[in-house]
Structure formats: C-alpha cells, structure tokens
Amino acid sequence: MVNLEWYRTFKEIYENGTLTKASIALYASQPGVSVHLNALEAYVGKKLFERTSRKMIPTEDGKFLYEYIIESLKKLEIAEQHFKKTTQEKNPSLNIGMCSEMFQLIIEPEISKLDFDLVARFGAHTDLIKDLNNGILDLVITPKKQNEKKSLVEYVPFSKERIVLIAGNKTNVTKIEKHIKSKNLSKLEYELLQNVWYSSSNEMEHFRRFWFENFNKKPAFKPNYILPNITSIIRCLNNGNGLALVPDFLCQEQILRNEINLVWEGKVKTENTLYFASRTDLKYKKELDTIKNIFTSKMK
C-alpha cells in the first residue's frame, strides 16, 4: 500500500528542485527523503526524476504524477492545518526507540506525568538507529554507537549495564557458588551446563559475550528456553528454577525482594555503555531533556 508521506516528499522535491531543500521543507533528513522517493518510484514502477549533481529534474512521468496529485495534496494540507491548529503548539510529539524492557521499567511509570505526546517504538538496535538516521525517530536508547560521517545523530553516554548471572530462588546453586569461590572455572562451567537455561532472542549477543569473556570460549550449548524478552525470563525465574544472563538494572528489584538470586557477576565485567542517540536538528529539545532526565535519575 502506498504511503501518503511518499507523495508529500515527491511534491517537495518537485517544487524545491533538490533533496536538500526538500528535506528542509519537510523537517526531515536527506536520507529519509531519498528513501521515500525510492519507495514511491518502486511502487509506481516509473522513474520520476533525472538525478544530476545540482538538481532533480522531473521526468514526463514525474510531471504527469505531480499534476494529477497536487490539488488533492493541497486540500489535504488545508484540512490538516485546520484540524491541527489548536493542538499543534500545545502538544509537541516525541518519537523514541528502545528495547521493550527498558521502556516498561523506566518510561512507563512516568507517562501520565508527561506534558507532551510520546510515540514509542521497539525493535533491534540497528533498525532503530536506521529509523533515527531517516528522521522517523528523535531519540534511541542504545548500547551500540555508530560512527558515520556527516550524520545528524549524536551519541551521549549516560549509564552502563552489567551482564550478570541470576537464578530462580528454587535453583540449587551450592556447587556453582563453591566453584566461583575457588575460582575453578572448568568445574564451574561444567556445573552451569547441568542446569536449565533461559535466554531471549534479542539478548543472545550478551549471552555469548559473557561466556567468552569468562570462559575464553563460545558457549557450546543452546538455552532450553528462548523467550521474547528479558521481562519474560525474570517472570519465569520468579520463585522458580533455572539460570539466565541478564542486564543488572532489569532485575534489581526482584533480587532485593528475594524472588531471584544474583549468583555471579563474572570474573571480568561484561558491560555495555548506554547512549542517548538523538538528532541534532530536533525541534523539541525541552521534551528530549525530560526523557533524558527520567533515565539519568533512575539509572544512576
């Protein structure tokens, strides 16, 4: 199905003559404008512009499409301005991306206190960063920093997460703790393999990294249960049996309530730096700072 934003983008490129001017008119990134144009050309099956070094020159098909849609787009824009006029200034909107567990733990309890609109998106960090670069998102919480030249995205570190070994409080960890204390890593690894293991599809990289950094090898086994997210793992281990490797800040409350046990932090720290990745051309910086302050206050 065609996306209406593709037509808006096409109109601005047609009227402004370059991708750069069109991106300014749309308050979007130039890569995002290119993505919309490429998607529209793929959808209609025709080339709409001739690309030159200085200007986008509409083809005959491009001219025909513009004449066909321009009146409808103008009417839509007038209607949009009419119905949005009263709320546009009162309700800024921020689009953010992160893992679902972090949103539930950090942002969800604060939503009712926000004085602006919020749209949250969950997914893989690489996909969220791509949406950030394309102007779809304003802020992403990520453990991965990408260094791209001429990018409108800046990365600001604000906290660290440490991957730790936890166990359901019905798990017998006597032998495990004995081998940890004696620093007998070969026996410790053997004992760990005798247990039931949980992991999540979006955290397997942390699982493999912890194992390699502590045992100098890749894990030679597959977890028994691979669940959608870490929240599910913690609920399954709550007063239950099994082991898992998770970021420490996601299970602190359950550890304090003795619902699960912190077994081992590793012989070396397996840590990730968490970054605020945000666009430098963001309009609503005050609202962005509000979200950042929520994170920094809860993840000291």
Describe what this molecule looks like in 3D.
The chain is of the alpha/beta class. It is 45% helix and 21% strand. The chain has helices at 4-16, 19-26, 30-44, 60-84, 100-107, 125-133, 174-182, 185-193, 204-215, 230-237, 252-256, 285-298; strands at residues 49-51, 56-58, 93-98, 117-122, 139-142, 153-168, 197-200, 225-227, 243-247, 260-264, 271-279. The strands form 2 sheets. Strands 3, 4, 5, 6, 7, 8, 9, 10 and 11 form a 9-stranded mixed sheet that branches. Strand 3 (93-98), helix 5 (100-107) and strand 4 (117-122) form a beta-alpha-beta unit. Helix 1 (4-16) packs across helix 3 (30-44), helix 1 (4-16) packs across helix 4 and helix 2 (19-26) crosses helix 3. The chain is elongated and about 75 Å long. The relative contact order is 0.14.
Number of contiguous helices: 12
Radius of gyration, whole Å:
25 Å
**Largest sheet, strands/sense/barrel:** 9 strands, mixed
Number of strands: 11
Question: Which structural category do the helix and sheet elements fall into?
Answer: alpha/beta
Poorly predicted segments:
none
Q: Cα distance, first to last residue?
A: 45 Å
H-E string: HHHEEHEHEHEEHHEHEHEHEEH
InterPro entries: LysR_HTH_N, LysR_subst-bd, WH-like_DNA-bd_sf, WH_DNA-bd_sf
Family: Belongs to the LysR transcriptional regulatory family.
Protein name: LysR family transcriptional regulator
Keywords: DNA-binding, Transcription, Transcription regulation
